[in-house]
Amino acid sequence: MNTQTVIVTSPAVGPNSTSVICPSCRHSIMTNVRTESTTRTHVIAILLCVFLCWPCVCLPYCMDTCKNANHYCPNCGSFIGTYQK
């Protein structure tokens, strides 16, 4: 009996939309990027609060550089990968 093993690797993604072939639907697509706050985002906000920079506490939540960029397929909606800054 002949068996095949298929290994699907996550494509390399960056902070911006990336051209890839979706591992789920096999279409050539430009990824949709959604940024998401992480623990690092919350820690930066807490540090700003601790050091009495009250007006700046919301900045980590407004800046994409303090968040992860999650990439999704616009065709099937499957998760492609995450870019951590």
- The helix tally amounts to 2
What oligomeric state do these chains adopt?
Answer: single chain
The overall pLDDT average reads 89
Kindly estimate the percentage of residues that lie in beta strands according to DSSP. 15-25%
What topology, given as strand order, has the largest sheet?
Answer: 3-4-5
Q: What fraction, in percent, of the residue positions are helical?
A: 10-25%
**SSE pattern, N- to C-terminal:** EEEHHEE
Count the E strands: 5
Principal-axes shape call: elongated
- Uncertain residue segments: none
Question: What is the C-alpha radius of gyration, as a whole number of Å?
Answer: 18 Å
Report how far apart the termini are: 46 Å
Description:
The protein is α+β, with helices and mostly antiparallel strands and 85 residues long. It is 19% helix and 25% strand. It contains two helices and five strands, in the order βββααββ. The strands form two sheets. A three-stranded antiparallel β-sheet has the order 3-4-5, with no helix packed on it. Strands 1-2 form a two-stranded antiparallel ribbon. The longest helix has 12 residues, at 39-50. The chain starts with 18 loop residues before the first strand and ends with a strand.
